[in-house]
Fold this protein.
Amino acid sequence: MTLDQLPVNQPAKIQRLAKTGLTSKLVEMGLYPGKDIKVIFKAPLGDPLAIDVDGYTLSLRKSEASQIEID
Amino acid sequence: MKVALVGNPNSGKTSIFNHLTGLNQKVGNYPGITVDKKFGPLVGQKDVQILDLPGTYSIYPKSQDEEIVTQVLGDKKHEDHPDLVIMVVDITNLERNLLLYSQIHDLGLPTIIALNMMDLAERKGVNVNISKLNELFQTQGTIPLNARKGTHIDQLKEAISNFKPVESKHSPIVEGEFIDGKVNANSGEQDVWAEKRYTRIRQMLKFCLEKTDEKTSKTLRFDKLITHPILGYAFFLALLFIIFQAIYAWSEWPMDLIDSVFINLSQWTKSNLPEGVLTNLIAEGIIPGLGGVVIFIPQITLLFAFIFIMEESGYMARVVFIMDRFMRPFGLNGRSVVPLMSGVACAIPAIMATRTIDHWKERLITIMVTPLMSCSARLPVYTLLIAVVVPDTSIGFFNLKGIVLMGMYLIGILAAFLASIVFRFIIKSRQMSFLIMELPSYKIPRWNNLTFTLIEKVKVFVWEAGKVIMAISIVLWVMASYGPSDRMEKAVSQIPKPQTEEEVEQYESQVASANLANSYIGIIGHGIEPVIRPLGYNWQIGIALITSFAAREVFVGSMATIYSVGEDFEEDVSLINRMKSEINPTTGSPVYTLASGLSLMIFYAFAMQCMSTLAIVLRETKSWKWPLIQLLYMSGLAYFSALFVYQIMQP
């Protein structure tokens, strides 16, 4: 499953990142395999989404979240 | 000594910079790019220069701003390459903040950590063993402080002044990524390195970080409200309305005050300096030109006060969050909304406000289309023309005049969005568009920082855009006040001299009209008549088109001068009546009809009739290319739309 399909408030762990031009940006912002994350709320229309990583909040577009594989 | 201030966005870097430099900070340029360079001496120590680098998460740039950080830190020959780095670290996000620290350390730069947000750390139950941190991460010292309150800033200042560059044994935190202070060309992929760094940082943090992970649910609850599908937008709309009201209405009295001060100053100069060309230049060219620059300060100050509050409080990131989906198809950014809406009041502060958009292409599109929004300077033009050509009838409950006026505003908004779609395909950019950003925790804005921001914005506008505005307004003044050989004198001598006291006023306005019609601008106005005739205009309108290049509202005053009547058309209907009775000598029909009037309104809606906007676009894009493209595309759009409207409306 990828992050964009994860229901709100359900904890998950990052498994893998798809290799795209944004991979290094995702890692730099603290999103790398092994991290525990959770979608905490979504914008109206369900895009973008806000996720919790280590107690801080990041926003991601749906298309960006779909590059993050979780379990 | 050169010191560079580095840190993640929202880490409190700007507050620390303000504390360190006080009011001595300056804004300069990096050669060749649009990023502003902020620097200043350390308070009380002229030989220590502090450079405030743009906020970034990593040494690998994702935007123009971030590229500067890489250039300055990764090139020993760069003129701004520092002897010492102050890395501002947000203690509540230690792991992510230390990624950038570890990269800077491995580039071989001696670094002091300014450990910020100690107050939040206590509340969140974060505890850091500083001596362990210094040892493991090989810092040049760590100063725990609170930038918002300014506590322990003195210790940081002391640490900077006591710093002595020493050749210490410097072992990299992660080996192989950088060699000799530069990125290793064969080092491989950035994300793999970043992951390696995180692994190492986590290992070391185990020894110096204690965390009792207490989640603040308050922020989350507030976030859900602020991004709510109904309440969220209602709040944002209300805020936009207040901002609009502020720059539209609240700025009115300071602007009137500035206006009257400069008018009085100009009159005083005229009556107190010896008569002559130089006095005229000062009284009618330079002083009004200066007034034309200063007049924008109230609007700039008000808009930036609001943007400051939105940015500092953390709300701006939420605006981006809820608007992103709607702005994306237009090649715009969530942050484009505030500049675009402010453009309805005035494009000058609006274009300055696009600086908050990091993505260069999205920022450029916003700059290019914002002047299409109907600004307050168009309102007098619209209302005069509507009074002249739109019949006073009603459609249902609505007055036709009101509908036309609203239509003009809607056309502006529509044109801005359509133009952004076009620019989206024209402007090329290597930079990827993404929304991987932090939603920072909510904070109460620091009013101290507000003063710094406002002073900086006003300074930049007055010094940099002001020069261009002054130059153009003097050129326009010369062209409106002088004509070839004795044309103006001859025309004036043909007006019958006043016989009675009552006729003096009339005589003077006829002289003004004859002077303008025979000045260089008058001659150009006559000259362009064949070009503008298909739009339904005569040479009188031609003159007003040229004079109002200074600012759109000048149209009304020029019409009044040309027709020798008073310009206050809301009090005195003579200008409206005079325009209504104007007859085209060749066809014998009225000049100002619904067709020509609407055509003229459409022209003013789209044309770049504002030198101050061009000056600020020049300053913000730092090249003549974009203001010229803007001038051309808007003039073309105005001309052909007006032509279209006139040709289909004409009976």
